[in-house]
Amino acid sequence: MKKPADSIDKIIKKIKAGNDTLRSDFIEQYKAFVISTISKVTGKYIDADNSEELSIGLLAFNEAIDRYEKEKGTFIRFAEVVIRSRIMDYLKKESRHKNVSIEESKEALPYIESNFDRVELREEINHFKNDLKGYGFSLKDLVQKAPKHSDAKENASLIARKILEHPTLLSEFERKKKIPVKASARYCGTSEKVIKRNKVYITAYILILKGPGESLKEYLRIKGGAADGS
Hints:
Number of strands: 2
Shape: globular
Largest sheet: 2 strands, antiparallel
Number of helices: 13
Structural class: mainly alpha
Order of helices and strands: HHHHHEEHHHHHHHH
Distance between the termini: 48 Å
């Protein structure tokens, strides 16, 4: 049953206050909406169990939760715009030698030729999923437990870069398949609590940074590998 806008606003407020269980339930409740939105953009059936587009759509829906403010209109409309935008980015990158256009925010936005074909990006996404699984996490964990605010995300990504640039910390990370919390906190000048709270995001960021592929990095707007971002 579709919830009224004011009820959704209250739910989002609680989620932003740190209720991760509610976030998970809310995302699951609107999974059908995400699938429907993606289908409208792509014009094809979306596999609910195995789809790159759905993974991207769920990440976009989670992003919409974090970015939403009442002045942006209804949450559902805002979430639809964010999902469409992220899916469009994906389609542009997977598109090659096509002249098809689709509707986005009442305007026809054409596919563009891309240096990254669908096979390359799909393989990198699957590789990332498998790497993440090796560290005990899933893409769903990443969606649910990513930092809520931009400053927290920036801090977590900086921690990831510092761990990546430190041979001993990186070796320990790869050997034990988890972040060496105490040593990392000491080296990064932060608390163990911060690292534990953001361990899924930091782990994912490290895996993406040290991965060989560039398509996924470009899609996620991730540059460089060291703490200086070079």
